[in-house]
């Protein structure tokens, strides 16, 4: 691959996303997802290997996940073997792991440096220790379709070329189209079912987590004996298999609560009755559209993140309690003044 053929598409906290802008037919309609690392931390301080011992135990039924040599490949197999069956393979692209050289990574990073937000550049850089990246479908276009880029630009800049409506109403009808697609696809129902795998919430799952790592429960250690005995002893007496299921389901649900969804449309030509894509009709403008609806950002959450989730939950609870107390005090002082 030529580094100059890849252009900046966007980035999150963990990955840089580049879109293909060259002429190779096998790469048209593809993106690269390249792992980043914090710029201000030592590279030797990062662990780029696969799962740790406890995580291997957690995901032991998925052989390819457990045996994956790097975290990037772990993520690929997690999407392929866990999230795809739950959310539907039609709506998830697990991608393909491909080998890249350090020279390629350095070149693409330099090429897109000016397009990246300054605060992202200051915070992160391309991981120089990665020898592979994820090649995935560009879900914003309809692949090797000669009008794809034109239609993509039209959706962003010229709705009048897509939505056949009078000026001032096109945005309204476009939002109607999105709403109808989301409802008719059933994706949110399926997503909710995966999110509901979290049956104990973090306040319960954290105890199963300490069972798995075979360490004294830090949460119970912060409670007095009566509270600990009454509420959580039962969770610490369950089997290892039950603990693994609770934490595994919690982490899968956490992924489902932190994903994104991309929906792409293209107008259907009159008389074109056959299409491999789903179809949605917009009665308001008497138009039909092909659409693709896909889930992205399906990264496996590290086992050690359980402690972070618990701390965050406690911060939220404490903040809410303080707000209630403040409101109560204000209400009380107001009543006193009025009296």
UniProtKB/TrEMBL annotation:
| GO CC entries | nucleus
* Keyword line: ATP-binding, Kinase, Nucleotide-binding, Transferase
| Keyword flag ATP-binding | yes
Task: Give GO BP annotations, semicolon-separated.
Answer: inositol phosphate biosynthetic process
EC number(s) recorded for this UniProt protein:
2.7.1.158
* Matching InterPro entries: Ins_P5_2-kin, IP5_2-K_N_lobe
Q: Which residues cross the membrane?
A: none
GO MF terms listed in the record are:
ATP binding; inositol-1,3,4,5,6-pentakisphosphate 2-kinase activity
Q: Does the keyword Transferase apply?
A: yes
Which catalysed reactions does the entry list for this protein? 1D-myo-inositol 1,3,4,5,6-pentakisphosphate + ATP = 1D-myo-inositol hexakisphosphate + ADP + H(+)
Indicate the secretion signal residues. none
Q: Which domain of life is it from?
A: Eukaryota
According to its UniProt entry, what is the function of this protein?
Phosphorylates Ins(1,3,4,5,6)P5 at position 2 to form Ins(1,2,3,4,5,6)P6 (InsP6 or phytate).
Q: What is known of its domains?
A: The EXKPK motif is conserved in inositol-pentakisphosphate 2-kinases of both family 1 and 2.
| Protein name in UniProt | Inositol-pentakisphosphate 2-kinase
């Amino acid at each position: 691959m030529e580094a100059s053929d890849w252009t900046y598409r966007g980035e999150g906290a963990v990955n840089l996303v580049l879109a293909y802008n060259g002429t190779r037919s096998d790469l048209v309609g593809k993106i690269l997802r390249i792992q980043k690392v914090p710029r201000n931390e030592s590279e030797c301080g990062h662990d780029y290997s696969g799962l740790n011992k406890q995580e291997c135990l957690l995901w032991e039924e998925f052989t390819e996940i457990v045996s994956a040599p790097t975290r990037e490949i772990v993520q690929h197999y997690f999407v392929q073997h866990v999230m795809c069956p739950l959310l539907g393979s039609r709506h998830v692209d697990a991608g393909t792991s491909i080998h890249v050289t350090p020279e390629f990574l350095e070149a693409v990073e330099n090429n897109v440096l000016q397009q990246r937000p300054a605060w992202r550049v200051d915070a992160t850089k391309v991981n120089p220790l990665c020898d592979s990246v994820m090649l995935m479908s560009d879900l914003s276009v309809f692949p090797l379709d000669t009008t794809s880029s034109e239609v993509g630009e039209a959706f962003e800049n010229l709705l009048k070329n897509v939505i056949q409506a009078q000026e001032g109403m096109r945005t309204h009808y476009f939002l109607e189209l999105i709403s109808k697609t989301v409802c008719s696809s059933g994706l949110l129902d399926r997503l909710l079912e995966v999110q509901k795998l979290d049956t104990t919430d973090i306040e319960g799952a954290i105890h199963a987590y300490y069972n798995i790592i075979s360490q004294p429960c830090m949460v119970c250690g912060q409670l007095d004996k009566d509270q600990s005995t009454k509420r959580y002893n039962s969770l610490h007496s369950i089997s290892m298999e039950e603990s693994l299921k609770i934490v595994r389901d919690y982490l899968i649900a956490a992924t489902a609560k932190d994903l994104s969804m991309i929906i792409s449309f293209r107008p259907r030509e009159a008389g074109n009755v056959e299409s491999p894509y789903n179809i949605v009709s917009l009665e308001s403008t008497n138009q039909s559209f092909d659409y693709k609806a896909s889930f992205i950002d399906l990264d496996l959450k590290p086992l050690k993140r359980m402690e972070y989730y618990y701390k965050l939950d406690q911060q939220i609870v404490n903040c809410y309690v303080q707000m209630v107390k403040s409101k109560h005090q204000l209400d009380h002082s107001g009543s006193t003044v009025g009296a």
